[in-house]
TrEMBL record:
Residues 87-112 are annotated as: Disordered. It comes from the Bacteria. This is Lipopolysaccharide assembly protein A domain-containing protein. One of its GO terms (cellular component) is plasma membrane. Residues 21-85 form the Lipopolysaccharide assembly protein A domain. The chain crosses the membrane at residues 39-61. Keywords: Cell membrane, Membrane, Transmembrane, Transmembrane helix. Pfam families: LapA_dom (PF06305).
Amino acid sequence: MQLYLIVALLFAITVALFAVQNAAPVDINFLIYQFKGISLVVVILISVLFGSLIVFLLSMVKQVSLMKRIYHLEKRKQSLEAELEKLREKNELPRQEQAAPEEESAPDAATS
């Protein structure tokens, strides 16, 4: 987490330095829109903000899908644990019945 913060901070400093060094006015053409005499700093910062927003939204989609998967896996785990507990309860009686004859036969073998 700290490495991510350091990399993000270095990226922000790099973008800021680049923007300050390229502050000349430029003309921008985007599809049918034209912007004349806009500072390159503004263009760079807006581009970085839009890029950051896109990355954030894509990561949120991934995060939500992972959270849904974790939720479904937790539900599946709970149902399997409940099924396992039922099977253990069901198999507990026969084990006790089987263990009793073994205990009775063991003393007979020792006395013979």
